[in-house]
């Protein structure tokens, strides 16, 4: 579905109708000024849902990055175990 794009003057003339449409469809309506995007009209609940989804993604990515950086720091500090040693340790654990 293509997003709705209307001139900002339409909002001035039929604001209530556009607001009702945004609430019913849960889709954003892009308002243009001189042919360029200027504002977006979106249902508040839908906006909150999208923002919480975005926030969850950002938090997950930040946690992954922090984990990678911890691992990087450990390598720099020499806190590493050779692969064959690590594999032997795992085999010992799982074979018991």
Characterization of the model:
The protein is an alpha+beta fold and 96 residues long. 67% of the residues lie in helices and 16% in strands. It is built from three helices and three strands. A three-stranded mixed β-sheet has the order 1-2-3, covered by helices on one side. Strand 1, helix 1 (8-25) and strand 2 form a beta-alpha-beta unit. The N and C termini lie far apart (57 Å).
Beta-strand residue fraction: 15-25%
Low-confidence stretches: none
User: What is the number of helices?
Assistant: 3
Strand order of the largest sheet: 1-2-3
The beta-strand count equals: 3
Please, what is the average pLDDT? 95
Question: In sequence order, what are the helices and strands, one letter per element?
Answer: EHEEHH
Taken from the alpha-carbon principal axes, the silhouette is elongated
Structural class: alpha+beta
> What is the terminal separation in angstroms?
57 Å
Helix amount, in percent? 55-70%
- Could you describe the largest sheet, including whether it forms a barrel? 3 strands, mixed
Oligomeric state as shown? single chain
How large is the radius of gyration? 26 Å
């Amino acid at each position: 579905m293509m997003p709705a794009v209307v001139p900002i003057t339409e909002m001035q003339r039929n604001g209530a109708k556009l607001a009702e449409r945004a609430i019913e469809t849960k889709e954003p309506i892009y308002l243009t000024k001189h042919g360029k995007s200027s504002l977006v009209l979106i249902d508040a609940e839908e906006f909150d849902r999208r923002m919480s989804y975005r926030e969850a993604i950002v938090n997950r990515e930040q946690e992954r990055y922090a984990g990678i950086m911890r691992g990087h720091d450990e390598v720099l500090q020499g806190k590493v175990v050779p692969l064959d040693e690590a594999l032997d340790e795992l085999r010992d654990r799982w074979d018991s």
